[in-house]
Every structure is written in C-alpha cells, then in structure tokens.
Design brief:
Blueprint (H helix, E strand, L loop, with lengths): L11 H19 L6 E4 L13 H16 L3 E7 L2 H11 L6 E6 L13 H8 L6 E5 L3 H14 L4 E4 L5 E3 L8 E3 L8 H13 L2 E4 L7 H8 L7
Helix pairs in contact: 1-2, 2-3, 3-4, 5-6, 6-7
This protein binds zinc ion.
Length: 229
C-alpha cells in the first residue's frame, strides 16, 4: 500500500526480499553470529482495530519474501490491537520462522494502546507459538510501566525498544505528515543505558531503540546488555 502511493506497488515483494538480503549481507560482514529479524508493520498503520483485508494480504507477501531472503525470524511490529496480532501470527506462521511481536504505543500506565491487557492478548493467542513479545515505539517510562505487566502475562522471552522521541504533525493519510526526531539531549544514550539496566532487571532479554534512536544510544545500551551465549 505504501509503495502504491508512489506507483511502485508491483515492486513490493522484490524490495522486501532486497531489504532482507541487505541486512543479511551487513550481518555477515560485521557480526556473523547475530540474527536478522524481518520486520513488518500493518499497512494502514493499524488505524482501525481490525485490518481484516490489507493486513493478511501484505503480511503473507512479506513473510514469504523475507523467508526467501534468508532472515532468521519474523518481527510483527508496530501493531497494537489483539485481533490484528492474532490475524498477523496466523498469516505469517506458514513461513515456518520464529515469530516475535512488537507492541506499539504502550500507555503511561503500561497497558496496550486501546485498553486491552497483555493477559487478553496471551489468552487470544492461545496455543499459537510466539517466540518473543517486545514493547516498542513507546515512551521509556511507558516501557518501565509495561514490562512488569507483560512479564506477569507472558512466560516467554520479553524485551523492549522505546522511541527516543518524536512529534507528529498532520495526518499521514490526509494532509501529509512529518516525523521529527527530538533533540536527543532530552533522552541521552546514558539515559537509555540506565533504563536498559532497569528493563533487564524486569526480565527483558532483547533491547533496542525505535524512533529517533541514534548509533550512540545503541552503543550505550550495548554496554549494559550481557553478551549472548
Ligand atoms: Zn518508533
């Protein structure tokens, strides 16, 4: 859908495969023992609670293309409604790769964006295998509020990649929009490292950064994350 805005909808699978291959090439060159997760987000930004047509179509295409590219896992991210998440897991499952979920816009109270609970999510997923649940694109303090709740609801690996800051101007589908990274002085690499240690103590095993994260933030965070076995 997004490539369709510039007339390139026929290139979607090709570009998705290429994105996966570029990440794998970088991994092979720089850190061969790292894993590459192929990310996919709802095509409408998940603006409606159930994206019943576009989401399954696009996620099926992306899961297949990313698998062909050779990624190690799939990351369903920037998703926020239970029904969308369950539909997404079902549609990417046939690719046969580990599935991680990145839940967006956690509230300051540490709940899912529309008031649904992590218990409701885990219950709705039922027997479906989900290999990690992460909180993402949320304020650091929302991550701190949400991780303990997620830990209580979900027994598998958890983690977080907060946004460092942004402001939104305009509506993306109606009048154009711009995202602006805030001055990272407002949330420094050292701040992320401090929060990262807190999140590790809350049980997080995968950490990173979302909007406006800089390489310096990741470098600071890396210092507090134990080396993988
Ligand atoms: Zn973000």
């Amino acid at each position: 859908m997004k490539l369709g805005l510039v007339g390139l909808q026929d290139k979607a699978a090709e570009y998705t495969r290429l994105a996966g291959r570029l990440a794998i090439e970088a991994r092979d060159r720089l850190r061969p023992n790292a894993y590459v997760a192929g990310g996919m987000a709802p095509p409408r930004g998940g603006r409606s609670p159930v994206d019943a047509v576009d989401l399954p179509r696009e996620f099926a295409m992306q899961a297949e293309a990313l698998k062909e590219s050779g990624v190690d896992a799939l990351l369903i991210e920037y998703i926020g409604y239970v029904d969308d998440i369950v539909a997404a897991v079902d549609v990417v499952k046939p690719a046969g790769l580990p599935i991680m979920i990145g839940l967006r816009h956690i509230t300051d109270e540490g709940d899912m964006q529309a008031g649904e609970t992590f218990e409701q999510l885990v219950s709705a997923l039922g027997p479906r295998q989900v290999d990690a649940i992460l909180l993402m694109c949320s304020k650091p303090k929302a991550i701190s509020a949400g991780l303990p709740k997620l830990r209580r609801a979900f027994a598998g690996p958890i983690g977080a990649y907060p946004n460092i800051g942004y402001t939104r101007a305009g509506d993306p589908l109606e009048d154009g929009h711009q995202w602006h990274g805030l001055d990272t002085e407002t949330y420094s690499p050292a701040d992320l490292a401090v929060d990262g240690e807190t999140w590790l103590a809350m049980g997080a095993r995968i950490l990173g950064g979302c909007c406006a994260t800089t390489p310096d933030h990741i470098a600071a965070l890396r210092k507090v994350v134990p080396e993988s076995p």
